[in-house]
Protein backbone atom coordinates (compact mmCIF):
# COMPACT_ATOMS: atom_id res chain seq x y z
CA UNK A 1 0.00 0.00 0.00
CA UNK A 2 2.83 2.38 0.81
CA UNK A 3 4.29 1.94 -2.68
CA UNK A 4 0.96 2.78 -4.25
CA UNK A 5 0.65 5.95 -2.19
CA UNK A 6 4.22 6.97 -3.07
CA UNK A 7 3.49 6.25 -6.73
CA UNK A 8 0.39 8.47 -6.68
CA UNK A 9 2.17 11.30 -4.91
CA UNK A 10 5.15 11.09 -7.27
CA UNK A 11 3.15 11.24 -10.48
CA UNK A 12 0.98 14.09 -9.19
CA UNK A 13 4.00 16.12 -8.05
CA UNK A 14 5.71 15.64 -11.39
CA UNK A 15 2.60 16.52 -13.37
CA UNK A 16 1.92 19.67 -11.32
CA UNK A 17 5.41 21.09 -10.80
CA UNK A 18 7.55 20.11 -13.79
CA UNK A 19 7.08 22.86 -16.36
CA UNK A 20 8.39 21.04 -19.43
CA UNK A 21 5.64 18.77 -20.80
CA UNK A 22 8.01 16.28 -22.40
CA UNK A 23 10.10 15.86 -19.24
CA UNK A 24 6.96 15.57 -17.08
CA UNK A 25 5.49 12.85 -19.28
CA UNK A 26 8.77 10.94 -19.32
CA UNK A 27 8.99 11.21 -15.52
CA UNK A 28 5.43 10.01 -14.97
CA UNK A 29 5.86 7.07 -17.30
CA UNK A 30 9.30 6.15 -15.92
CA UNK A 31 7.79 5.92 -12.44
CA UNK A 32 4.85 3.96 -13.89
CA UNK A 33 7.24 1.54 -15.59
CA UNK A 34 9.11 0.97 -12.35
CA UNK A 35 5.91 0.55 -10.37
CA UNK A 36 4.28 -1.90 -12.79
CA UNK A 37 7.52 -3.72 -13.52
CA UNK A 38 8.50 -4.25 -9.92
CA UNK A 39 5.02 -5.02 -8.59
CA UNK A 40 4.61 -8.17 -10.65
CA UNK A 41 2.87 -10.15 -7.89
CA UNK A 42 0.23 -7.58 -7.00
CA UNK A 43 -2.97 -9.40 -7.95
CA UNK A 44 -4.33 -12.89 -7.49
CA UNK A 45 -3.57 -14.18 -11.00
CA UNK A 46 0.18 -13.62 -10.75
CA UNK A 47 0.90 -17.28 -9.96
CA UNK A 48 -1.13 -18.41 -12.99
CA UNK A 49 0.82 -16.13 -15.32
CA UNK A 50 4.11 -17.31 -13.89
CA UNK A 51 3.09 -20.96 -14.18
CA UNK A 52 2.03 -20.38 -17.81
CA UNK A 53 5.36 -18.73 -18.53
CA UNK A 54 7.29 -21.77 -17.34
CA UNK A 55 4.84 -24.19 -18.95
CA UNK A 56 5.51 -22.58 -22.35
CA UNK A 57 9.16 -23.53 -21.99
CA UNK A 58 8.23 -27.21 -21.81
CA UNK A 59 6.33 -27.12 -25.11
CA UNK A 60 8.23 -27.39 -28.37
CA UNK A 61 5.07 -26.54 -30.35
CA UNK A 62 1.93 -24.62 -29.47
CA UNK A 63 -0.97 -26.91 -28.56
CA UNK A 64 -4.24 -25.18 -27.62
CA UNK A 65 -5.59 -28.32 -25.98
CA UNK A 66 -2.64 -28.32 -23.57
CA UNK A 67 -1.74 -24.62 -23.26
CA UNK A 68 -4.86 -22.50 -22.77
CA UNK A 69 -3.59 -19.11 -23.87
CA UNK A 70 -3.23 -17.16 -27.10
CA UNK A 71 -0.56 -18.13 -29.59
CA UNK A 72 1.06 -14.69 -29.26
CA UNK A 73 1.29 -15.07 -25.50
CA UNK A 74 2.95 -18.46 -25.93
CA UNK A 75 5.43 -16.96 -28.41
CA UNK A 76 6.33 -14.13 -26.04
CA UNK A 77 6.82 -16.56 -23.18
CA UNK A 78 9.10 -18.71 -25.35
CA UNK A 79 11.03 -15.65 -26.51
CA UNK A 80 11.74 -14.48 -22.96
CA UNK A 81 12.67 -17.88 -21.50
CA UNK A 82 16.43 -17.14 -21.49
CA UNK A 83 16.03 -14.01 -19.34
CA UNK A 84 13.18 -15.16 -17.10
CA UNK A 85 9.72 -14.18 -16.01
CA UNK A 86 10.63 -11.07 -14.02
CA UNK A 87 12.48 -9.47 -16.93
CA UNK A 88 9.52 -10.37 -19.14
CA UNK A 89 7.09 -8.51 -16.87
CA UNK A 90 9.39 -5.50 -16.70
CA UNK A 91 9.82 -5.35 -20.48
CA UNK A 92 6.05 -5.57 -20.98
CA UNK A 93 5.59 -2.67 -18.55
CA UNK A 94 8.21 -0.62 -20.37
CA UNK A 95 6.63 -1.28 -23.78
CA UNK A 96 3.24 -0.19 -22.52
CA UNK A 97 4.64 3.02 -21.06
CA UNK A 98 6.54 3.77 -24.28
CA UNK A 99 3.32 3.51 -26.26
CA UNK A 100 1.53 5.75 -23.76
CA UNK A 101 4.35 8.32 -24.05
CA UNK A 102 3.78 8.78 -27.77
CA UNK A 103 0.06 9.18 -27.25
CA UNK A 104 0.46 11.62 -24.34
CA UNK A 105 2.99 13.77 -26.21
CA UNK A 106 0.69 14.04 -29.18
CA UNK A 107 -2.71 14.57 -27.56
CA UNK A 108 -2.31 15.88 -23.98
CA UNK A 109 -1.82 19.56 -23.20
CA UNK A 110 0.48 20.44 -20.27
CA UNK A 111 -2.28 22.03 -18.18
CA UNK A 112 -4.22 18.73 -18.20
CA UNK A 113 -1.29 16.48 -17.41
CA UNK A 114 -2.22 16.27 -13.71
CA UNK A 115 -5.65 14.98 -14.74
CA UNK A 116 -4.08 12.38 -17.00
CA UNK A 117 -1.75 11.27 -14.19
CA UNK A 118 -4.69 10.97 -11.81
CA UNK A 119 -6.73 9.16 -14.47
CA UNK A 120 -3.87 6.77 -15.15
CA UNK A 121 -3.80 5.90 -11.47
CA UNK A 122 -7.56 5.66 -10.90
CA UNK A 123 -8.64 3.97 -14.12
CA UNK A 124 -9.65 0.33 -14.25
CA UNK A 125 -6.58 -0.24 -16.43
CA UNK A 126 -4.33 0.58 -13.48
CA UNK A 127 -5.50 -2.48 -11.59
CA UNK A 128 -5.52 -4.53 -14.78
CA UNK A 129 -1.94 -3.46 -15.46
CA UNK A 130 -0.95 -4.36 -11.95
CA UNK A 131 -2.34 -7.80 -12.59
CA UNK A 132 -2.81 -8.82 -16.21
CA UNK A 133 -0.66 -6.26 -17.97
CA UNK A 134 0.80 -8.92 -20.21
CA UNK A 135 -2.50 -9.24 -22.07
CA UNK A 136 -2.05 -5.77 -23.57
CA UNK A 137 0.69 -7.05 -25.82
CA UNK A 138 -1.03 -10.09 -27.30
Total number of helical segments? 7
Percent strand: under 5%
Report the strand count. Answer: 0
Helix content: over 70%
Backbone structural class: mainly alpha
The topology string of helices and strands comes to: HHHHHHH
Question: Could you tell me the radius of gyration in angstroms?
Answer: 17 Å
* Model regions low in confidence, pLDDT < 50 over at least 5 residues: none
Cα distance, first to last residue? 29 Å
Largest sheet: none
General shape? elongated
Report the mean per-residue pLDDT as an integer: 79
Task: Compile the SSE list and pairings.
Elements: H1 2-17, H2 21-38, H3 46-57, H4 71-79, H5 85-107, H6 113-122, H7 124-132
Describe this structure in words.
- The two termini are 29 Å apart.
- The chain has 7 helices and no strands.
- Helices cover 70% and strands 0% of the residues.
- The longest helix has 23 residues, at 85-107.
- The radius of gyration is 17 Å and the shape is elongated.
- It has helices at residues 2-17, 21-38, 46-57, 71-79, 85-107, 113-122, 124-132.
- With 138 residues, it is mainly alpha-helical.
How do you describe this structure in short?
This protein is mainly α and 138 residues long. The chain contains seven helices and no strands.
Amino acid sequence: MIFTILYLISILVISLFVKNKKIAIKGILLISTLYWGLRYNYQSDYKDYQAGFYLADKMAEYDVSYYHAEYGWWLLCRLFQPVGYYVFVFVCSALLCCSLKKWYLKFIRKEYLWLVALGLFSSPYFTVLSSAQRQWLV
